Amino acid sequence: MAELSKKRPEFRNINAFTDLTTYRLPAAGWVSILHRISGLMMFVLLPLVIWMFDMTVSSEISFARFSSIFNVGFGGILLKLFCLALIWAYLHHFIAGLRHLWMDVNHHAVEKKIGQKTATGVIVASVLLTIVLGAKLFGLY
Fold first, then answer.
1. Element counts in the chain: helices (H) and strands (E)
2. Distance CA 117, CA 95 (A)
3. Considering just the CA atoms, what is the radius of gyration of the chain in Å?
4. Contacts of 134 (CB under 8 A, 6+ apart)
5. What is the rounded CA–CA span in Å between residue 115 and residue 27?
6. How many other C-beta atoms lie within 10 A of the C-beta of residue 125?
7. b/e per residue 25-52 (b: at least 16 CB within 10 A)
C-alpha cells in the first residue's frame, strides 16, 4: 500500500533559456554531441582540405608557397588554428566511431558504467592526441 501512495516522477520539457545552464550532461552525451559537431566540421572544412592537398602535391613551387602561408603573421596562425580544429574533429570522430563499432560488437559495452568509462576515454584520447599533433603543427618539436 505504501508503494501506491508514492508520488510519481514528473517529466517536463527542458526550457532552453533557463534549464540548459543547470543541466548536467553525462560524458556519453558529450561524446554524442561532439561526434555530430566533428562530423559537421569535417564536412564544412572539406574544401579547405582539398585546397591544402592540391597545394602540397601540385609542384614544388606550390608546396613552398603553401608552406610560407603558415609562417605569415596572423593569417598563418589562423590557418594553423583551422588545421588544429580539423585535426581534433578527425581524431574525435575516428575514436568515437571506433567506440560505437566496439559497442555494436560487444553487447556488454552498452552498460551504463562501461559506456561512461569509454566516453571519458574518447574525450581524453582525442584531446591528448590533438595536443600532441598541435604541438607538432605549431613547431614545438
1. 5, 0
2. 14
3. 22
4. 84, 87
5. 9
6. 17
7. eebbeebeebbeebeebbeebeeeeeeb
How far is the C-alpha of 128 from the C-alpha of 91, rounded, in Å?
10
pLDDT (tens digit per residue) in 45-96: 899 899 889 989 999 999 998 888 888 888 888 889 989 999 999 999 999 9
Cell numbers placing 136: 607538432
pTM over 0.85: no
Q: Which amino acid is at 97?
A: G
In terms of Cα–Cα distance, which of 70, 64, 92 is closest to 83?
70
* Domains of the chain, earliest start first: 27-137 (1.20.1300.10)
Here the cell at position 86 is 580539423
C-alpha to C-alpha distance for 27 and 105, rounded to whole angstroms: 21
Grid coordinates given for 36: 555530430
